[in-house]
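Consortium newsletter contribution from the modelling node. Members have asked for a concrete example of what our holo predictions look like. Here is one, prepared for the protoporphyrin IX containing FE complex that several groups have been discussing at recent meetings.
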Amino acid sequence: MRVGPAPGALPVLGHALPLGRRPLDFLASLPAHGDLVKIKLGPVPFHVLCDPDLVHQVLLDDRTYDKGGAIFDLVRTVAGNGLATCPHADHRRQRRLLQPAFHRERLPAYAKVMSSEITAMLQGWTEGGRLDVLATMNELTASLATRTLFAAELDDATFGELRLCMHDVMTGMMRRMLLPWGLLNRLPTPGNRRFHQARRRLRQYVAQLTTDYRRAGVDHGDLLSILLAVRDDNGQGLTEAEIHDQVFTFYLGGSETTAPLLSWALYLLGRNPEIRARLHDEVDAVLSGRIAEYDDIPDLELTRRVIMETLRLYPPGWLFTRLTTKATELAGHRLPAGSIIVYSPHIVHHRADLFPDPERFDPDRWHEDASRPPRGVFTPFGSGARKCIGEVFALTEATLALASIVGRWQLDPLPGAHARMAPRLSSTPRSLPMSLRERVIGVPPNGADRGAERLDAQPPETVIMRRTRA
Ligand code: HEM
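And here is the predicted structure:
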């Protein structure tokens, strides 16, 4: 195993600039410098895992490589000690208590809500319009997370403010990750003030939601009801603080990941019309223009592969940290207790020796008969005991949404538009306007080109489509 430093560290900033400006390119360049590569953010050293065996070793040993380091410390400032951020010592109890909310038998009920939210979203789309894809997918996944997990119907104003708070918190968290200097983050700058205000508001929202539930005393069959009902072996339930932290954790997990996944998938399909035409054939055959439902999922095989390939190219969680709880050895390199380890699915997913022609969007890599990737190679949902609890939920949501959207609409990137990643907590495109064209089922793939002529002749209005509730 090769261990080495990444070149190009600046005296005070370390590698903060390339990581902030072109994070994915910077990360993908690291395997050239070793299997375990040392980078610096400000004065803080990080050890980046570039080899799948090392990724596997670290993720499976969550006692030695515990949650910790810059990213989790930041997420903890908002999500407290929830399932995604809690240390190993608290994790098994929390996971046991929360797992029932994600049992397979609950999915059909979640899927019903998903299909109805997707229907509501598509009702707001109009022929020839221009769609802000990221904003629309954010809205869809945030409202899905709210309705399936907390069943709450928020009014539009509250919902909008919630999203704004979330955005400000995310931006503040990212800035803190790239510039981890305590003093700078405590100064009363406008950015810091926005961050603290947004954090306070979010806590208030969640507290209010919990109080309303307790007062109503009804089992809504959703996550919050489960959180209020669960008991461990000693008959102990979750404390108020724990409930708050889990609510926020699931809100974050449920909305900030699937939205970029869907956005990138639609962008990649727009850039690859042949694959999109094949996908049209699949969804036309399975759905005939209706909204996808839970029972359709096994028949949406190419849809599944498109989602897998999007997760490979643009894994929404692109950077995670671990903290060594004791002195240990990794790749033959001695690490003292308290060392920060970084794993990024993006790095291994883009290694040409593991995924030939890695920048090519090729859903056929994921043919059912293709051998499963070796351990540590494909980790969009992590691995080991800390693997994503919402994986099946997210894949269900993404499959239903993608199939329903492409069944009815064709989305094309605007001429000359190239999506670039914004350095946020999840790998989010900076902005993604696409043109909208309503599909006519049964029109052969070259019907798309006829549509393109029509659209060019009548330039679309620049509008952001918003969902309208049926
Ligand atoms: C495409 C969608 C999603 C992706 C790519 C994703 C990715 C991940 C990854 C990589 C981890 C492990 C993080 C680590 O190792 O430090 C994780 C954990 C987690 N995710 Fe997701 N996630 C997605 C959707 C969801 C959804 C929909 C939920 C909730 C409804 C969710 C809730 C969680 C939670 C609670 C954890 C912590 C699990 C634990 O530590 O036991 N995620 N996710």
